[in-house]
Amino acid sequence: MADETAPRPSQAAALREFWAGLGTFRRAGVVTLAAVEVVCTTAAALDLLQRPQHLVRGPKALWWPAIFVQPVGSIAYLTWGRRLRSSTDVTP
Length: 92
Prior knowledge:
The protein is mainly alpha-helical.
């Protein structure tokens, strides 16, 4: 059975043509926003991995799939999903 997810040659050519049709400023914007999204998602995943459950608002098991919902999941976790650490939570 053929791989249905791989773009057909005509689709790949259409995507290349679309990308080439974007101006330099727009291409730079897309690449910049993609990089910001990767950084936010990575930061959220690392924080969720290391943060104890009592410092997470809601179950960690529900935050894992949520942080991969682009573009709002990781931003939502970093904004609302974390509780502040108190002085008793910090280990010397």
